[in-house]
Amino acid sequence: MAENAMQAMTRPVAQRQLQHVQLTVSDNGQVATITLNRPERKNPLTFDSYAELREFFRALQYASDIRAVILTGAGGNFCSGGDVFEIIEPLTKMAVPELLAFTRMTGDLVKAMRACPQPIIAALDGVTAGAGAILAMASDIRIATPRTKTAFLFTRVGLAGCDMGACSLLPRIIGQGRAAELLYSGRTMSAEEGERWGFHNAILEPDELLAEANRRADALASGPTFAHAMTKTMLQQEWNVSVEQAIEMEAQAQALCMGTQDFQRAFEAFAAKRPPVFEGN
Question: pTM to 2 decimals?
Fold first, then answer.
């Protein structure tokens, strides 16, 4: 009965058909790789790809198969932001209600990325600009190459730096002063700066980037899925509460994890002096 209820609440998403970005899934069906695949233009986003990504990350909240996600770009670049002719030019001709609908839709993509329980690893090479920098920022782990160049370009086109949650998320990653500098100036953050400031978790050579992303994703996918989801939830929710509230929230979260079979399996494996095998329940 409980199994039937779980099946009713969750669905596999590995076979989902995407038209505007590329989706590949690992052989074991647990790691999804999303590739922004317009390399001839440095992988810019369009209205359609924004919406498709939003819906995919929303679906991950109820996925029964995918345990980790890699987000990357094709052709030596990650993402150059919104397509100049397919997004920026049409925006200049819209009225404010239409513009607000667009900015809310793009913000919903970030919300969906933060709300999905799967850890997201951004594998960043080359240009990572504008909305591309936001997608990197909204991921959980970011690995880069020496040629990765990250820029929050919004002020360069007459817009505010407060786009898609940047004024909330970026200071928490690299600090208020550094975030303010990048968001006011729109200048490029080098890969070395990004690693030193905590934006990048590691810097790899370009031919090693995806292999390292897959290694990390496989490690996460083979771990305690429920516990990873709880960790991501707490990392998100505890930004806005007191230390006392955070400690109570973590007490409740950890008690829930202690009630899982994965916790029991880990103890039994430790007692038997063998590696644990987690099944996500």
Answer: 0.92
